[in-house]
Design goal:
The complex is a heterodimer of chains A (191) and B (537). Chain A is an alpha/beta fold and 191 residues long. Chain A has 6 helices and 7 strands. Chain B has 537 residues and is an alpha+beta fold. Chain B has helices spanning 2-8, 30-39, 96-105, 199-206, 212-217, 224-239, 245-273, 277-298, 318-343, 346-352, 360-366, 370-375, 382-385, 406-430, 481-484, 487-492, 500-506, 511-514, 530-536, and strands at residues 12-16, 20-24, 43-52, 58-67, 72-79, 84-86, 109-111, 159-163, 175-181, 184-191, 307-308, 311-312, 445-455, 458-468, 471-478. The chains are: A alpha/beta (191), B alpha+beta (537).
Chain lengths: 191, 537
Amino acid sequence: MFEKSLWVFHLNSGSCNGCDIEILNIFAPKQDVERFGIKLVGSPRHADAIAFTGPVTRECLPKVIEAFKAVPEPKIVLAIGSCACGGGIWYDTYAVIGGVKELYKILKEEYGIEPPTTIYIPGCPPKPEAIIYAVAMARGLVKQKQKREIYIEELDEKTERDIVEILFGEAKETRHFVPNITVKTDGGEDE
Amino acid sequence: MIIEILKGNDAKILRHDEKVILALVPNDKLRTTAELLFKAGCYYATGVGVDERLLGVGFSMYHIFNCESEKRYVILKAVASNLKIPSITPVISGANWAEREAMDMIGILFDEHPEPLRLILPDDWPEGIYPLRKEFHYNERPPKVEFKPPKREKKPGIMEVPVGPYHPTLHEPEVFELHVKGEEIVGAVYRGFHVHRGMEKLAEERMTINQIPFLAERICGICGYTHNCAYAQAVEDAAKIEVPERALYIRTILLELERLHSHLLWFGVAFHLLGFDSGFMHTWRIREAFMDLAELLTGNRKTYGMNLIGGVRRDIDEEKKKKVLEIFEKTKKETKEVLDNAVGMKELISRMKGIGILPKKEGREIGVVGPVARASGIDTDVRRDHPYAAYGDLDFKVPVYKEGDVLARFLVRYEETFESFWIIEQALDQLPPGDILNEDYELPEYAVGIGATEAPRGEDVHFVITEGGNKVYRWRPRAPTYNNLPAVPIMLMGEKLADAPIIIASIDPCFSCTDHMVIVDGEKVCRCSLDDYLGRL
């Protein structure tokens, strides 16, 4: 990914300020991410990464698309907070599009833009430490913590097995920020 | 006196107690009643449109007034006949946007409204679909319609400087358009409602009364807990629920903790805008201690999730109490040091003194609240005027300055910060024993309740109509920025362009709070009516 300094443009698509304040917070003395070469910039054209907050409201959508297109390629997106990850508590209301995945769908269908690499940071708001971890991941300093594997206990009954599969099918659909989940039954003690 | 005004205008009193007077006013007397109330010293808090067809009433409008002299809220209810209600905007300009919101969201028509334009809904929203009507479901997404922006005519010699929707000094998507002649600002247009998330409808349709506090907290990421409290108080007022005293004290402690972190945040942002970045770093360093304290007391740095109807969810034990006082000893000293240094800096003071003046008379007409009002000589504070939580038992000062400039607003917040330390210390000291949650209540059907708190930015009013069971029929929050924003163009007039960011920031604007509701219209702030606006220049 980006091995050198990462310049970040903060794109608020209708967030409640909670995540935005935590983003500012990581630039304050306690966390001070500028020591990793990270800087907030005022113009999308100067940025390598977008710090994306908010569930994308209907009013904001055209402006968000404009700002999104203005960030040059290659870019990465840090989807900060539950709202940005999947729309949060208002994921299906009339005034909200529903998070960064829905935005990517619109971008692909209407403008033919492929979704960029995205790092999801859920939380309401996420702790500053979580945001720093994500930024460090973008810099290639640390590895992703989340695995795309879920372990379940082995079941004898075939019907129960079917129920579990239906449940995981649903999980794959709804938890779209963890793509390609695999289900394993060997107890999860591999490491 | 209020009651005489209401009775003299054939109003039917529906509720009358020490907190609220609710009166049904005949449509032909609505405007005179509102005018008389305003002249009697009650200022306009907000207006709420309600779809009451399920109750066999039709559409109705509730106008809420804050009567400080009687320590009460007065609600005038008017029922639409044939979708029409007379507008009170001609006599009270503060009602402008509240009525336009009801037009947008419910479809009530207001007779003789001076500016009946769309306010909240997005530009591509189709006509004739009203989200807050009961037949509309919260997850419907009507198709886009084409929208043509109004034509802009350029005035010679006037430059338009857009600030937003994405701008380095704003952290929220809002648009201010400043009109400048040389360096001097001669006009400003505000265009908001980018953060309308459909919260009220969501609460009515999908959530239960004890889930809404968590939704209310997500109105705003800075002053969420005060919304949470105001909502809980509104339901407790409607259902007459007794809250245990210990819970009230815990609420007070958390409300003041929130004020501390919010004020320090504001100092930091103000210093940054004034070019004093080390001040920003120092205040945010101190603020981190309060975030840790919040985590200690509630489990989260922000969005505390502490309130339920009837009390709070977590207790404060002796160990936490000790820890809070320990941290306070250190932070109080540090805060004083940093802020006193700032107040002693000539460069900083000269950038705030005499800048962005809001005269008392204009402030009162608009109905500004909180530190903005107190800096303009208006002595108002919900904590003292309508005591809630444990504020009635505690001792604190309400700082009032009469200069009305940015420096006065700075100094009001400066004094309030130390009052907050003092309030928390008292509350911890006097924390009474007992339960923290009263779950023994029943929600009445269709009762009206009001909850008000003093947010860090000013008066925060929540209006609730219960549905019985565990649902809410209508909930409407009104944030303080709603009342303060119309004052910004008055402050901006005639100032230099370079001072605009600190003047806008001096009201401590919080757009996410304001946006799923309404903002009172000042004379020169308008949305989508740029032509009208330019005509008035």
